[in-house]
Amino acid sequence: IDATVFRHVLDAAGAPIAQLDGPPAAGDAPTGDWRRGDVIVDHVTIPLPAGAAFAEHVEFGLYTPVDGARLPATGADGRLPNDAVRIRIPVTSGS
After folding, report:
1. Which helix (H) or strand (E) holds 68?
2. Separation CA 40–CA 75 (nearest Å)
3. Is residue 95 scored above 50 in pLDDT?
4. pTM, entire model
5. How far apart are CA 64 and CA 86, in angstroms?
6. CA 18 to chain centroid
7. Are 73 and 61 in contact (CB under 8 A)?
8. pLDDT for 41-61, tens place per residue?
9. C-alpha to C-alpha distance for 18 and 15, rounded to whole angstroms
10. Phi-psi region for residue 27, left (φ > 0), alpha (ψ -120 to 50) or beta?
């Protein structure tokens, strides 16, 4: 079963303000075809709702669409919280 990518935009408190779920690379790179060492580029635009607070993080990971179970996500120190990779959005002056 091919996995689905979840992408969550979070505010400063860690609350989700927007999300986009779907197949990797708009369906052009199903996870069943992935091999060790593959690099998958997944460009997406996640619209923020009107009046949304500042987005501070994006988190993403994979889940199986049949049961919604997240696939384990691990880092150098072991399993990641919520089985998700979290990236801080850099803030530049004027943003």
Report:
1. none
2. 18
3. no
4. 0.85
5. 19
6. 11
7. yes
8. 999 999 888 887 677 899 999
9. 9
10. left
